[in-house]
């Protein structure tokens, strides 16, 4: 896109020429409250003026970490009561994989095809097809894949499986929601075999799908939950969350079984705390997600649009092919609207605006997309 950004305000980005762009992707789902939200900015400035890096291994008690972990666990089922902060989503995946191996004593993983959990070596090992990873092989062995929403793959979860790792809603496929009965069957199969269930809500969390966490809509609770992107409110922050009994296995044999220098940085945790606190104290932000989703779906009707898949304020607008996607993105950009495509689906436009987007802004954005389509 080659946009040179000079500023951001709410749902808008501003370039160096002063042109305003309505941001329909929010930094790939990061800016859940929009750009430069006052509560987040104030929290970052206050914490930066208090102290920044110290030690995050636990030798020091850092109130931004403690307050964020406390508020986060208060929103989760009681069995998810222990938080390990990371810098990013891919690091949350890596930590969760180590934790699953350590707790179960097993080394194999089951992941879904067309899933994306990050680009570091462990996370990239989970990816299939291997278009984006082949150049870096060999990666981790012992990875088996199943098809999302396909009951036939459940028998690949065995007594050798350390964990099944799934996105609660598949993102880079171009938005695929699970059948509740399938996700519940995965949960049962994990319980039968002693495997852990890891749910990746790096993109799906923080109200994006209409509840604070997407798994709340499907009648399952993971053993390990992955968070990042919107979790940090625009600052680099991720986490993996598990029950204390599981997480404690990282503390001995060896001691410091998983460590980080910057994970849970006080300034990032302050931003995350302000973001989560805003979502909790202003429930209308998440409560309005489904209505806004419905408005998008009503307005995005055009002969060139083949399908609209959605999970709250997160949708994929399918067109014919990548060339049509490219010129539609360019047409939107020219008119002051930012959109994008998906890693494993180059036929669909990505829509994931800040949750603060208004109905009037949705109407305008949809009008621009339809105009760009011709």
Automatic annotation (TrEMBL):
Name of this protein: Aspartate aminotransferase family protein
Pfam annotation, one family: Aminotran_3
Protein family: Belongs to the class-III pyridoxal-phosphate-dependent aminotransferase family.
Molecular-function GO terms, alphabetical: identical protein binding; pyridoxal phosphate binding; transaminase activity
Signal peptide: none
Gene3D superfamilies: Aspartate Aminotransferase, domain 1, Type I PLP-dependent aspartate aminotransferase-like (Major domain)
Keywords: Aminotransferase, Pyridoxal phosphate, Transferase
Organism this protein belongs to: Neolewinella marina
Domain of life: Bacteria
Cofactor(s) it depends on: pyridoxal 5'-phosphate
